[in-house]
Amino acid sequence: MTTEAPIVIVGTGLSGYSLAREIRKQDKDIPIVMVTADDGFSYSKPMLSTGFTKGKEADELAQATSEAMIEQLNLDLRTYTTVTGIDTEAHELVTGEERIRYSKLVLAWGADVIRLSIEGDGQDRVFSINDLMDYRAFREALAGKKRVAIMGAGLIGCEFANDLRNGDYEVDVIAPSDTLMPGLLPRPAAEAVKSALIDLGVGFHLETVVDRIDREGDGVTLALANGETLQADLVISAVGLRPRTDLAKASGLEVNRGIMVNRALETSAPDVYALGDCAEVDGHVMLYVLPLMACSRALAKTLVSERTEVAYGTMPVMIKTPCCPTSVCPPPSDAEGEWELEQDGNNVKALYKAADGTILGFAVTGSYAVEKQALSKEVPPIHD
Ligand code: FAD
User: Fold this and answer.
1) Nearest-CA residue for atom 3 of ligand 1
2) What is the rounded end-to-end Cα distance, in angstroms, of the chain?
3) How many angstroms separate the alpha carbon of residue 131 from the centre of ligand 1?
4) Beta strand segments in 238-337, E
5) Residue 186 domain-assigned?
6) How many domains does the chain have?
7) What confidence tens digit (pLDDT) does each residue in 91-103 have?
8) Domain-ending residue, one of 215, 237, 259
9) CA of 174 relative to ligand 1 center, distance in Å
10) 249 & 213 share domain
11) I need a labelling partner for 117 at 20 to 30 A (CA). Which of 163, 240, 269, 340 fits?
12) Strand 170-175 with 229-232, pairing
């Protein structure tokens, strides 16, 4: 019944395009339809927080237009097309009035930014940056401005803080935690990054939150819960991401923190797969590039030839704070062990060791960051 229908991929982020590339390595002709809510430009999302450091405008971060991708990957590509439902019984994707038949459907539709509801009339000066179109809008708004306040001290907030300082902007970071990147970095490593960012001129306002954002002239005033007030021209909200699960759930797919898939990237519905930021793969929600690359290689094989399971190796994360280069491979949440520390100023080497000495995770900053590759080889892979 579904033999002539194409493979349909929703999303043209790194997951969607990596998968299409992997499929094309194996089969030049199998019909692929890609559907995306955005402009379909190909770009590397991690580059968004390096624009000033690398001296690149938003358009220079784009690697290829949608037309170039159609040509390169032999695709039928529908841009500015939002998927509104999946009819898993009929094997059809719903985009408003239109229905697109699929033989296999892949959901690569990413994660939503978490938006805080904050009092005040300055909301149109608050930017969340989770794709190239967001970044373009932010860079346009930033023209001629000087001061940026960043809500959130996670990986993305810290990377933007470093990058904007490299672009000579005044930067204040506000976050409820008492340290940076809690949950990702052990405290000594987080303190090293914080101290390097302070030396670079970033202002930190931790253990508090933004209560109000009000317009003031061309900029805004932020009222913090601790009684402080800050002036800024623009605000970046970097308070977290949440895998997009609503539409999958409404279509009857099983979801948890992400769209639930097994190691073959199969959802609970026949012929429907998921990967990337929207997916929870065998219990792991990892909003990073390495996991999605591993998934796209395995899934391409499944779609074109034989069912293949993904095997995650170790998944180190590089934090793009050039003032204090940092890499981390967090230990599994159920790991039993202790952190062992070597430290010289902002140079930190923290190893999470089991009782038998096995290294289960690490964080390295400053001059120790070069040890990332060697340490990654010592940490057991996520999947055996
Ligand atoms: P996305 O890139 O979000 O793509 C989702 C696609 O789905 C888009 O094309 C969107 O238009 C489309 N879509 C969504 N909903 C619909 C719908 N209903 N209908 C149709 N289309 C839809 N990771 C690292 O490993 N290292 C880093 O250094 C790093 N740096 C980062 C820096 C920043 C600033 C950010 C924001 C993230 C960073 N990440 C990093 C994370 C990494 O970039 C992401 O994990 C990855 O890009 C996710 O790709 P994706 O294709 O799954 O999702």
Assistant:
1) 110
2) 38
3) 7
4) 241-243, 259-261, 272-274, 279-281, 317-319, 326-329
5) yes
6) 3
7) 999 999 899 999 9
8) 237
9) 24
10) no
11) 163
12) unpaired
Asked if 25 and 103 sit in the same domain, the reply is yes
CA distance 318 to 336: 24
Q: Which ipTM score applies to this complex?
A: 0.99
Q: Is 277 helix (H, G, I), strand (E, B) or coil?
A: helix
Q: Residue 45 is encoded by which pair of tokens?
A: 């999302």
Atom of ligand 1 nearest to the CA of 45: 43
**Main-chain dihedrals φ then ψ at residue 157, nearest 5 degrees:** -60, -45
Of ligand 1's atoms, which has the minimum distance to the CA of residue 18? 51
Atom of ligand 1 nearest to the CA of 130: 36
Assess whether the C-beta atom of 35 lies below 6 angstroms from ligand 1. yes
How far is ligand 1, taken at its centre, from the CA of residue 243, in Å? 10
Task: Name which residue sits closest to atom 29 of ligand 1, judged by CA.
Answer: 46
Nearest alpha carbon, ligand 1 atom 12 = 11
- For residue 167, the 8-state DSSP code is T
pLDDT tens profile 51-68: 999 999 988 999 999 999
The Å distance, Cα 379 to ligand 1 centre, comes to 27
Strand partners, 73: none
Per-residue pLDDT of 183-240, as tens digits, reads 899 999 999 999 999 999 999 999 999 999 999 999 999 999 999 999 999 999 999 9
- Closest residue CA from atom 41 of ligand 1: 288
